[in-house]
Design brief:
Blueprint: E1 2-5, E2 13-16, E3 50-53, E4 85-87, E5 93-95, H1 103-108, H2 110-115, E6 120-123, E7 127-128, E8 160-164, H3 175-186, E9 189-195, E10 198-201, E11 214-216, E12 222-225, E13 253-255, H4 261-276, E14 281-285, H5 292-305, E15 310-313, H6 320-323, E16 335-336, H7 339-349, H8 358-363, E17 377-378, H9 392-402, E18 408-412, H10 434-441, H11 445-458, H12 461-465, E19 467-473, E20 477-485, E21 490-498, E22 504-508, E23 515-519, E24 525-528, E25 532-536, E26 540-547, H13 553-559
Parallel strand pairs: 3-6, 3-18, 6-9, 9-14, 14-15, 15-16, 17-18
Antiparallel strand pairs: 1-22, 2-25, 4-5, 7-8, 10-13, 11-12, 19-20, 20-21, 21-26, 22-25, 23-24, 23-26
Helix pairs in contact: 4-5, 9-11
Length: 561
C-alpha cells in the first residue's frame, strides 16, 4: 500500500475504485457456507461511548440543593464549601468549592449528550462528602496542587458511602429516578464511580472540623474516625481506627485497611446498593493503590449478584504491562483506562503534533499484554490529567481517531467545544460548564465533527468491536481495517485518517475485500476489485464499509495469526 499527498481537493472524494487498467468489475467471491468468527470482543460495553461529567461542574439544575452557607459555622467562616474561587494570570480563574451542578442539571441536558452520539454517562462519585473545606494539608491555589482549602465537590472524599451527597439530588429526583429516566427516555446508561482506597482528608488540620476523617454506615452510625491523627499514631486498641492503614498514601486522605473484612463488607455493600438503584457499570478510582486480591474479592462478589458486570479502573500509569495486570481474571478481571494510548494521543493531537506512528506501540494489538485490548476505555484527557492542549483541528483529529480505533471511547465534558483546553486541575480543567456553554457548544466545529463520527460508530458494529488490522501509519495519516464477522453479521470498515493541513491521497492496494464498498457518510456504493484510491480533506476522516464475509485470502490469513 502506498500513501501520497497533494493539495487539490478539500473534501473526501473517491477517485478510483477499480484496477489500474479499468477492467470490468470483478464479482465478489462467493460467500462460504460458514464463516469464521472474527471479533475483537463480545463485551456488551464495547458498543458504548462514554461522556464523563464532573457532576458538580456540569449544570446547576436545582439551586435549592446548593447549600451556599454550608461550613460557615466553623471558626471564622473561612471553611465554607460553596464557591471557593481563586484567580490566575491573564483573567483566568479556578474554583475548589461546590458550584451547583446536580442530577437535575444533568437530566435536563441528557438530550444534548445523546445527540452527540454518546450512549452512557460516567458521573463522579455520588456519595456524601465533607460539609466544609479542608482546614489542613498544603494550601491549594491556581496552578498549585494541594488539598488545603479544597472541598469534596468532586465526590472522592467519601464520609458515608451509602448516602447521596446532599448537593446532587432534588426532592423529586434521587439516584434511582435519575437512572430510570436516563434509560427509559434517553436510552443512556450510567457509570458508577467508586473508591476503595480512601475516604476524606483526615489529618494535619489544626483541629478536626465537620465530618473530615469520619465514616458512617447505612444507618448513619459512626463506624470509623481518624481523629486527625497521623496514620502512624492510630491505636490498635481503638475500634474507631480499625478501618484504616497505619501508613500514609495519597495526600492526607484516610487510607482504608483492605485486609479488614469489615472494610470489605462496608465497601462492597455500598457498591451493590447503588448498582441496585440502576448503575450499569463501574469505574474504579485509584485502583493501583489497593492490592489485586481486594479487587478480585470485590469483582467476584459483585458478579455473583450481577453476572458479567462491566468494570474499569483508573491505574494512572503509562506502563502497559503494569496496568494490564488489573485486566487478568486472577486479579479481578476489570478493564482499565488506557493511559498509554492517552499519552500517545496527547502527543499526536496536541501542540507537539507527534506523528501517527506514536500510536503503534501504544495500541498493543498483537502482544497479548492485556486480557482483551478491545475492552480498554480510551480517552485523550479527563479530570486528573491536563486537558488536551490543541486547537480546534487537533480536537477534531483526536475524536476521529478515538471513535474509530480499538477500545471504548470516553470524552470529558466540554471537550466538544475545547473547554478550558490545555488547563490542569487547579488551573480550571474542572471549571463550571453551564447552560450558556452547552448552547455555545452546539454551534462549535468540534461538536459538529464529534457528533458526525460518534454517531457513525454508534451504528457501525465493525467500529465498536471489530478486530483492528493496521495498514499504514505516517506523520499525518493513518490507515487501518476493523473486521467484525459472526454467522449473523459480517462487516469490515476501512478507516482513513488525515490530521495534516493539506488533503491526503490514499491508495490501498492490499487486504481489501472484493465487491461493493460504501462510503459511510454518504452511502455511495463503490466497486472494488484490487485497490481503492481516495482523497481525504485536511483534519478529516473517511470510512468505507464492506457488508459481507471477508473474501480476501491474505486478510484472512493475517487474521488467523
Amino acid at each position: 500500500m502506498n500513501i501520497s499527498r497533494y493539495a487539490t481537493l478539500a473534501t473526501a472524494t473517491l477517485l478510483l475504485a477499480c484496477q489500474a487498467d479499468k477492467a470490468p468489475e470483478a464479482p465478489a467471491a462467493a460467500a462460504p457456507a460458514t464463516v469464521a468468527t472474527i471479533v475483537g470482543t463480545d463485551e456488551a460495553w464495547a458498543s458504548e461511548a462514554i461522556y464523563f461529567v464532573l457532576t458538580d461542574r456540569f449544570v446547576d439544575g436545582d439551586p435549592a440543593n446548593n447549600f451556599e452557607d454550608q461550613g460557615r459555622e466553623f471558626g471564622d467562616g473561612r471553611w465554607h464549601s460553596f464557591n471557593r474561587h481563586f484567580d490566575g494570570p491573564e483573567g483566568r480563574s479556578a474554583n475548589v468549592g461546590y458550584m451547583g451542578g446536580d442530577f437535575k442539571g444533568l437530566l435536563n441536558h441528557a438530550q444534548f449528550i445523546k445527540d452527540m452520539g454518546f450512549t452512557a454517562i460516567w458521573m463522579t462519585p455520588i456519595i456524601d462528602n465533607p460539609d466544609a473545606a479542608f482546614n489542613g494539608g498544603d494550601p491549594v491555589g491556581y496552578d498549585q496542587w494541594g488539598d488545603g482549602g479544597k472541598t469534596g465537590f468532586h465526590g472522592y472524599w467519601g464520609v458515608n458511602f451509602y448516602q447521596l451527597d446532599e448537593h446532587l439530588p432534588s426532592a423529586d429526583l434521587d439516584y434511582r429516578q435519575l437512572n430510570a429516566t436516563l434509560e427509559n427516555q434517553y436510552n443512556l446508561k450510567t457509570v458508577l464511580d467508586i473508591v476503595g482506597n480512601h475516604g476524606s482528608p483526615s489529618y494535619t488540620a489544626p483541629e478536626q472540623i465537620s465530618n473530615f476523617g469520619k465514616l458512617f454506615d447505612q444507618g448513619g452510625q459512626l463506624v470509623a474516625d481518624h481523629q486527625n491523627l497521623h496514620p502512624e499514631q492510630l491505636d490498635d486498641a481503638n475500634p474507631l481506627h480499625d478501618f484504616f492503614n497505619r501508613k500514609p498514601d495519597v495526600a492526607q486522605l484516610s487510607d482504608f485497611n483492605e485486609t479488614n473484612p469489615a472494610v470489605v463488607d462496608y465497601l462492597v455493600g455500598s457498591y451493590l446498593q447503588w448498582i441496585e438503584q440502576g448503575a450499569d457499570a463501574i469505574r474504579i478510582d485509584t485502583i493501583k493503590h489497593v492490592p489485586h486480591h481486594f479487587w478480585k474479592t470485590v469483582s467476584d462478589r459483585i458478579r455473583a449478584v450481577h453476572p458479567d458486570f462491566f468494570m474499569f479502573g483508573e491505574s494512572w500509569n503509562y506502563d502497559a504491562a503494569f496496568i494490564a495486570e488489573h485486566t487478568q481474571p486472577e486479579n479481578g478481571g476489570v478493564s482499565v483506562l488506557d493511559f498509554p494510548l492517552q499519552q500517545a494521543m496527547f502527543a499526536m493531537f496536541g501542540k507537539a503534533q507527534a506523528p501517527y506512528t506514536q500510536a503503534l506501540d501504544a495500541l498493543h494489538l498483537n502482544d497479548g499484554i492485556y486480557h482483551n485490548v478491545y475492552e480498554l476505555v480510551t480517552f485523550y484527557d479527563n479530570h486528573d490529567v491536563q486537558r488536551l492542549d490543541a486547537n480546534d483541528a487537533g480536537f477534531i483529529d483526536a475524536n476521529n481517531f478515538l471513535f474509530t480505533v480499538r477500545g471504548i471511547p470516553q470524552v470529558y465534558y466540554g471537550s466538544e467545544m475545547g473547554f478550558e483546553r490545555g488547563m490542569k486541575e487547579h488551573q480550571g480543567s474542572r471549571n463550571y460548564y453551564g447552560e450558556a456553554n452547552i448552547a455555545k457548544a452546539q454551534q462549535h466545529a468540534i461538536y459538529k465533527q464529534l457528533t458526525r463520527i460518534a454517531n457513525l460508530r454508534k451504528t457501525t458494529p465493525a467500529l465498536q468491536r471489530g478486530v483492528q488490522v493496521n495498514l499504514d501509519f505516517t506523520d499525518n495519516t493513518a490507515t487501518f481495517l476493523r473486521v467484525y464477522q459472526t454467522p449473523a453479521l459480517q462487516q469490515t470498515a476501512l478507516v482513513l485518517l488525515n490530521k495534516g493541513d493539506l488533503p491526503a491521497q490514499f491508495t490501498i492496494d492490499e487486504l481489501l475485500n472484493q465487491g461493493q464498498w460504501r462510503a459511510a457518510f454518504s452511502d455511495q456504493s463503490h466497486a472494488v476489485s484490487q485497490s481503492l484510491t481516495t482523497t481525504v480533506a485536511p483534519h478529516d476522516v473517511a470510512v468505507f464499509l464492506f457488508d459481507g464475509p471477508v473474501n480476501n485470502a491474505a486478510l484472512l490469513e493475517k487474521l488467523n495469526h
